[in-house]
């Protein structure tokens, strides 16, 4: 999710000016980082402890 957010932010932020996809990329980066932090803290997310 973090990688997809970075790709959307880079491609649609600087190369192709589509603002809605830039904002979607930024939101995906933020959500991915939050899920990563919660996962490494040992909290179960969505009923699962680990995502592979």
Descriptive report:
This protein is an all-alpha fold and 52 residues long. It has one domain. The chain is built from two helices and no strands. α1 runs antiparallel to α2 (19-40). The longest helix is centred in the middle third of the chain and has 22 residues, at 19-40. It is elongated. The mean pLDDT is 79.
Break the fold down into its secondary structure elements and pairings.
Layout lengths: L1 H14 L3 H22 L12
Helix pairs in contact: 1-2
At a glance:
The protein has 52 residues and is mostly helical.
Q: Please, how many domains?
A: 1
Strand content: under 5%
Question: Tell me about the biggest sheet?
Answer: none
The poorly predicted ranges are none
Measured distance between first and last alpha carbons: 12 Å
The secondary-structure element order is: HH
Observed structural traits:
elongated; 2 helices; mainly alpha; single chain; 52 residues
């Amino acid at each position: 999710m973090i990688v997809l957010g970075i790709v959307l932010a880079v491609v649609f932020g600087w190369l192709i000016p589509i603002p809605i996809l830039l904002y979607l990329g930024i939101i995906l980066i933020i959500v991915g980082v939050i899920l990563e932090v919660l996962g490494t803290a040992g909290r179960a997310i969505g009923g699962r402890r680990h995502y592979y």
